[in-house]
Structure formats: structure tokens, C-alpha cells
């Protein structure tokens, strides 16, 4: 559990008579001084008014430590009771109102003005705690542990039909839990515990900052020097694990929770039986039995997320779901797929499933499933759920979100637990767009041209929205396929069709079928099933090997993506790669250029809405039109000078040039072939 070098293990000796005499004169007491050992160079003058009991080892104290406000104090121990502890070099301990018991305290740690820091019996420090995520009534329990990733948790929660896999994963976690269970706690190197109350059975990693916490019990604070964990004032945390870079502050209350890397829970947030993975944010509101995949964010009071799977979610104020029908208990659950947003006061009755990158507005009382209609608006109108398919593809907000997520990755730990794919268009979303396009066409064919509304899985779709959805999805599909094709052929010269076709051949057979989103990790279902099979047959038998499998899926995404795109391209062309021609590449690239320009023009028009006269209402309060416009421009800037608008213009030029360059290469190859 601890570094021997940090605590001078093996280099201690008994106190001398002179040292015992000096300690006694400085107000220190001990029933049996023979149980106290000290390091070479120990300075008895650094220990004052301290009660020792049990076996204690003390390092050297020769430095000073800095506090808030520029205050500097010498290291040492004063006004404390120390029981069965090993204390490293240059540790500062002062004003312990009750006692410190059964801890290894590493070098440079600071413990000032706390009530209690103790281990009783053996503790697993939150490892192995069963978190009843997703379904509040149970059945999807996730046994959390120090190195849990979103992807392992996803398999544990959602692959219950693979009972052997679940059994073996749980056994691996149980073995890990047993390996870290100890009767001794840890305060890691450079950790700071200041103005805290009760800390029981909690492992505190290096560089942790714990200031003003009310109660921490049965937890692991997995801080590291590169990315410290902060636990702030008024926090209550029980049965928990907090990963590197996480922050839990401002009166937050958590019970049976996993807090992932870079996650921030603050402003009186309350959560129980929930798992939060990389870069989540919870402020003011409440979570109960949720699986919060990466970048799940809620900023508002009266916002409740309950019994659901979320990922890349932005929850508006007053967002709520219902999982309790008052019949068999709170047994219902729901899914909001990646990239979605909920407007203020939105409500969804579980069970329901919301498609990726959907905006939810209003209250929805029917059990809908729009997973094959991504990038939509789900709107309430006269107690009906109305869907506008595909319209979110043209939204500036959607593209802005996709670009901001990588920039807002707060993780500084060199070891990332979650493998996150930020792509807006991927085989995962585009396969849904293909399904959505075909579904909308079938609805039109079966319901007739004159129908005003079409009904699908408890939502209504207007005739005009259906036609528009088909168009939006086709634009998105053409853009993605063109992106993949151009990336595949970028910076390559071909002297023959055979060379061109060879370049288009995939290097692996994995990826042509269905894709899944494992809470941030996009992968072919076939690759996931292969890994699960290897867990079942014992070829994968450790948590490290499971982690390696997920890492491999993530790293091989570009090749898997091409396998999927190549299959769809062949279907759209009606020919195999061995039959493809320069003319086919030119045709596909021309479609791609048209899709890129058309979509960018839609984004451009959507961005312009943010600068209309209506939006300027409330500006220039004491002036006329010129004052209003001037005030608006000083605060919001101009449309022409907006960075996103400028980026759209550059994007059109850049992509057009890229397409023209590939078309030029294909024209040259075609001419070369004809000669």
C-alpha cells in the first residue's frame, strides 16, 4: 500500500533516554516508550503536546510548510493523539481533536485541525461496494473499484445476459478488492487534510487536498501528483471512490458513488448509487441510480437524473424522469444516448430511449424509442410527443458541442481510465442515420402521401418533417462516407487502378456490422463480442487484460471505421472494391463536396439567427436602435467577426480544395489508364 522509501521503512531505532526526557518535558506522554521508533536524524524538539499509544514510527522533521495567506510553519507534531501509525519525513500534524489511528502517513503530508482520522478493523476503502445504478430496484449492480472504467462498468451493467462474463468480471474485482483490503490506511505523499471533521476507513492518495470535509467514510481518494483530487468544505461521502483530478466540494453529499477522472460535483449536489465517469459535472441538482457516461453535465437546481444511462448529456434546469409506476416499485429505466440535451422543465416517463444528439423539449408521457432517429428534436405539443428527425444536424450548437468536448478534457493523469471517442459522425451514429432514412421512407410508403402525421414508437412525425429528415440523414451519410474515403486516399499517388484498389482494401475483417457505444468508447459489436468470449473461455482472466482489450478497440478505431465505411460504399455503388473505378471515386467525392457545402451553409444560416434584431432585445437599455446594436456588438460581437462563423467559411474553402485535389488525382489516373 505504501512506499517504503517514503516512510524510512527498515531504518528506525528506539528513542534514546535523552529524547524521551525531552519529549516528556514538551508535554508528550506514552504508556510504553519502547513501542516508539524514530528515523536517523529525528529531532525530538519537533514533537509537542502529543499522546502516543500502540506502535508508532516517526521520520525526521527539518523543513517548513506553507499555508494559505503566506503563513509558514515548521514541520512536526503538536496537540495530537497518535495510535499505531508510521509517519514519514517532514510531516506536519497539529490540532487533532480526537486521534489518528492505524495510518501510514507519507512524506510531506499536512494534517491540521481535524477531528478524527482512523481505520477500524479491515477496510477495502470503497472497493467492492455494490452500486445499484440504472435500475433503482437492483439487478444491474456495479461493484466499483479503484481502476474502474466506463467500459467495464457498461459491460457489468448492460450485459447481464452474458452471465458467465458478469460472474468472471465480478470475481476479478473481488480478487482486487481482497488485495487492497488492509487494517492500515494511507495518507499519501504531499496530501493536505485541513479543517476536517471525521475521516474513517479512507485511503488518501498522494497530493490530495481535503479541506473542510464533514465526513469521509469507506472510500478511496485516488489522487496523483500530476492530477490531485480536491475534497472541499461541507462534503459528506460514504462508500465511494474518487479518481484523479476529481473535485467534490461545496456541501456535496454522495453515497455509494464512483467519481471518475476530471469529474466535478459541487454546489450542494446530491448523488446516491450512481457512477460518474470522465469529465462529468454535477451542480445543485440530484442523481439517483444513474450511469453517467463521460461529459454528463447538469448545472441547475431542481434537476433530477434518475435510473438511466446518459453520455455527453447537457441537462437543462428542472429536467426530470419518472421510474416509479407505484405497482412493482421503481423498476423502470431509460436511456438517453450520447450528445443529447434536455431543455428546461423537460420530463420523460421511463421506460424510454432517446436517440443520439437529440434535443428534448417539453413533457413526454409515452414510452417512446427514437434510437434509430438521431439528431432530432423531440417536442411536446398538446400532450403529444412530436419528433422532427435529423434537424439537429444543422444546429450550430451540435457542432459546437462536438468541438468543445476535447478542449474540456480536464484529465491530467498520464493514465486515462476511460477511452473517449469524440466523433460526431461515426459508424455508430451514421448506421442509425441509415436506419432512420430507410425507416422514414417505409413510413411514407406504408402510410401514404396524404397523411399529415406518421406514428412511430409513440411519437408523431409530420409529413414535412419526414421528408426533411430523409434529406438531412442523406447529407450526413454522404459527408461521413466522403470523409472516410478522402482520409483513406490522402497524400497517396497511384500509377494504376490496382494500386488504388489495394489502398482501399481494409487491413482487418472487424467492423463491417453493427457498432456500439460503450459509454464513450465506439467499437464494432463484433470486437466487443470477441472480447466477451475470451473472458468466458478464460483467455482473458485479469482486469488488466480487460483494460488492454478496450484500449486496443479504441486505438484501432480508424481501421475499424474504414472497414465499416468500405462496406457501405460498396453497397451504395453496387460493386466491390475490386471493381471500383476512378469515375466512382470522382462521383463519391463530388457528393461529399456537395454535402459538406450544403451542411455548412445550414450551419451558417443557423448561426446568423444568433445576431438578429430579436436576439438583441434587452441590449442598449437607455438608448435607441444604434445604442442597442452597439451594446450588443460590444458584448456579443458581430456575425462577420464571430470565430465560429469564420471557421465555417474556412471549412468550406478547405474541404472544397481537398475534394478538388482528390478529383484531380483521379482524373490524372483515369487519363493514365486510358493511355
What does this protein look like?
- With 675 residues, this protein is α/β, with parallel strands linked by helices.
- The chain has four domains: 1-108, 3 Solenoid (UDP N-Acetylglucosamine Acyltransferase, domain 1), CATH 2.160.10; 119-295, no CATH class; 416-451 and 464-579, no CATH class; 586-674.
- It is 32% helix and 26% strand.
- The chain contains 13 helices and 45 strands.
- It has a 28-stranded mixed sheet that branches. A six-stranded mixed sheet has the order 1-3-5-9-11-15, with no helix packed on it.
- A hairpin with a 5-residue loop joins strand 6 and strand 7 (72-74).
- Helix 5 (427-447) runs antiparallel to helix 6 (463-489), helix 6 crosses helix 11 (582-608) and helix 11 (582-608) runs antiparallel to helix 13.
- The chain is elongated and about 100 Å long.
- Residues 1-5 have low confidence and may be disordered.
Amino acid at each position: 500500500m505504501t512506499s517504503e522509501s517514503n516512510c524510512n521503512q527498515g531504518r528506525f531505532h528506539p528513542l534514546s533516554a535523552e529524547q524521551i526526557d525531552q519529549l516528556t518535558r514538551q508535554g508528550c506522554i506514552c504508556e510504553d516508550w519502547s513501542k516508539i521508533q524514530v528515523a536517523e536524524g529525528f529531532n525530538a524538539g519537533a514533537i509537542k503536546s502529543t499522546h502516543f499509544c500502540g506502535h508508532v514510527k516517526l521520520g525526521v522533521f527539518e523543513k517548513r510548510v506553507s499555508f494559505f495567506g503566506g503563513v509558514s510553519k515548521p514541520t512536526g507534531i503538536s496537540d495530537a493523539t497518535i495510535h499505531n501509525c508510521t509517519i514519514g519525513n517532514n510531516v506536519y500534524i497539529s490540532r487533532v481533536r480526537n486521534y489518528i489511528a492505524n495510518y501510514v502517513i507519507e512524506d510531506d503530508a499536512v494534517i491540521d485541525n481535524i477531528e478524527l482520522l482512523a481505520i477500524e478493523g479491515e477496510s477495502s476503502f470503497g472497493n467492492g461496494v455494490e452500486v445499484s445504478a440504472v435500475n433503482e430496484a437492483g439487478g444491474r449492480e456495479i461493484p466499483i473499484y479503484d481502476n474502474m472504467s466506463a467500459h467495464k462498468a457498461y459491460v457489468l451493467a448492460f450485459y447481464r445476459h452474458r452471465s458467465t462474463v458478469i460472474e468472471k468480471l465480478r470475481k476479478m474485482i473481488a480478487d482486487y478488492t481482497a488485495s487492497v483490503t488492509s487494517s492500515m490506511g494511507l495518507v499519501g505523499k504531499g496530501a493536505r487534510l485541513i479543517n476536517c471533521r471525521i475521516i474513517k476507513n479512507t485511503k488518501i492518495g498522494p497530493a490530495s487536498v481535503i479541506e473542510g470535509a464533514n465526513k469521509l467514510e469507506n472510500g478511496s481518494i485516488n489522487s496523483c501528483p500530476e492530477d490531485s483530487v480536491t475534497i472541499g468544505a461541507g462534503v459528506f461521502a460514504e462508500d465511494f471512490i474518487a479518481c484523479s483530478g476529481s473535485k467534490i466540494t461545496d456541501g456535496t453529499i454522495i453515497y455509494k458513488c464512483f467519481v471518475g477522472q476530471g469529474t466535478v460535483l459541487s454546489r450542494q449536489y446530491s448523488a446516491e448509487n450512481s457512477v460518474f465517469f470522465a469529465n462529468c459535472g454535477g451542480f445543485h441538482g440530484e442523481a439517483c441510480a444513474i450511469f453517467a457516461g463521460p461529459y454528463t453535465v447538469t448545472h441547475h437546481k431542481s434537476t433530477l437524473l434518475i435510473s438511466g444511462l446518459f453520455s455527453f448529456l447537457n441537462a437543462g434546469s428542472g429536467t426530470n424522469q419518472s421510474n416509479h409506476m407505484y405497482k412493482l416499485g421503481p423498476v423502470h429505466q431509460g436511456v438517453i444516448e450520447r450528445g443529447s440535451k434536455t431543455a428546461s422543465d423537460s420530463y420523460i416517463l421511463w421506460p424510454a430511449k432517446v436517440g443520439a444528439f437529440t434535443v428534448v423539449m417539453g413533457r413526454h408521457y409515452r414510452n417512446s424509442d427514437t434510437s434509430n432517429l438521431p439528431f432530432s428534436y423531440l417536442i411536446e405539443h398538446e400532450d403529444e410527443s412530436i419528433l422532427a428527425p435529423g434537424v439537429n444536424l444543422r444546429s450550430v450548437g451540435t457542432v459546437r458541442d462536438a468541438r468543445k468536448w476535447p478542449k474540456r478534457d480536464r484529465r491530467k493523469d498520464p493514465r486515462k481510465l476511460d477511452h473517449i471517442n469524440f466523433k460526431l459522425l461515426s459508424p455508430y451514429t451514421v448506421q442509425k442515420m441509415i436506419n432512420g432514412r430507410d425507416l422514414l421512407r417505409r413510413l411514407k410508403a406504408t402510410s401514404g402521401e396524404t397523411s399529415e402525421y406518421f406514428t412511430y414508437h409513440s411519437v408523431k412525425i409530420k409529413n414535412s418533417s419526414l421528408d426533411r429528415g430523409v434529406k438531412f440523414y442523406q447529407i450526413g451519410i454522404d459527408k461521413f462516407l466522403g470523409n472516410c474515403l478522402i482520409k483513406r486516399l490522402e497524400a497517396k499517388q497511384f500509377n494504376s487502378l490496382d494500386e488504388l484498389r489495394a489502398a482501399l482494401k481494409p487491413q482487418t475483417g472487424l467492423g463491417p456490422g453493427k457498432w456500439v457505444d460503450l459509454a464513450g468508447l465506439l467499437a464494432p459489436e463484433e470486437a466487443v463480442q470477441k472480447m466477451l468470449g475470451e473472458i468466458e473461455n478464460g483467455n482473458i482472466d485479469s482486469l488488466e487484460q480487460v483494460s488492454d482489450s478496450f484500449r486496443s478497440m479504441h486505438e484501432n478505431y480508424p481501421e475499424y471505421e474504414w472497414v465499416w465505411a468500405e462496406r457501405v460504399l460498396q453497397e451504395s455503388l453496387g460493386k466491390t472494391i475490386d471493381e471500383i473505378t476512378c469515375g466512382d471515386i470522382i462521383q463519391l467525392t463530388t457528393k461529399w463536396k456537395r454535402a459538406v457545402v450544403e451542411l455548412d451553409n445550414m450551419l451558417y444560416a443557423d448561426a446568423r439567427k444568433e445576431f438578429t434584431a430579436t436576439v438583441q432585445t434587452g441590449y442598449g437599455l437607455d438608448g435607441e436602435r444604434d445604442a442597442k446594436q452597439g451594446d450588443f456588438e460590444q458584448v456579443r460581437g458581430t456575425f462577420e467577426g464571430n470565430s465560429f462563423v469564420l471557421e465555417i467559411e474556412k471549412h468550406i474553402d478547405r474541404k472544397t480544395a481537398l475534394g478538388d485535389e482528390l478529383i484531380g488525382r483521379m482524373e490524372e489516373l483515369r487519363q493514365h489508364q486510358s493511355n
